[in-house]
Hints:
By secondary structure, this protein is an alpha/beta fold. The protein has helices at residues 24-39, 61-67, 69-87, 104-111, 128-131, 137-146, 149-158, 164-170, 182-193, 198-208, 210-217; strands spanning 2-7, 10-15, 45-49, 54-56, 93-97, 100-102, 114-118, 124-125, 175-177. It contains eleven helices and nine strands. The chain has a six-stranded mixed beta sheet, sandwiched between helices. Strands 4-6-8 form a three-stranded parallel beta sheet. Helix 1 (24-39) links the parallel strand 2 and strand 3 (45-49). The chain starts with a strand and ends in a 5-residue tail after the last helix.
Amino acid sequence: xxxxxxxxxxxxxxxxxxxxxxxxxxxxxxxxxxxxxxxxxxxxxxxxxxxxxxxxxxxxxxxxxxxxxxxxxxxxxxxxxxxxxxxxxxxxxxxxxxxxxxxxxxxxxxxxxxxxxxxxxxxxxxxxxxxxxxxxxxxxxxxxxxxxxxxxxxxxxxxxxxxxxxxxxxxxxxxxxxxxxxxxxxxxxxxxxxxxxxxxxxxxxxxxxxxxxxxxxxxxxx
Length: 222
């Protein structure tokens, strides 16, 4: 589900599950991949990407309906734990948003340190207001921690689909570039942030995102 490679000292994690929706197997794959990065002292940064049309399309609602209430709860809790881990990860993580990043997938991108999007296709979107799913406190705090108040307000209450250039204007993405340069640009940004003390980086992030981390740790469900 997640393929790991390495370019120079940057670990490239590529989600390979079609729409890259979150279910328990995907969350387990994320945990194993991030464990491997932390165990590798030569890994100085991470670039996280997907394949084709999707970066991540959020929760795997079909899988959750079939799996039952307890598994649904575990998926939501596991996703919040993943966001927490990325927010405090000891090496830089840059999202190479190759395609659509919707709902939980958009929040996955926000949990990373920086974001590079395609300039031609693919949207960042928080559609919860249109699909009648309220944000739990932790997810709301995550969005508000990473976006300006104006951008968070608009993104959360409009459900607007934001393309790459517009995402840069909103402050959602740090860069928009051509499809064939998204990953390369993310790797360069990851390199520029790398080389710092892992414990210090993690400690700084814990203080920076304290409110979001505390809210995510409550592991609320919808």
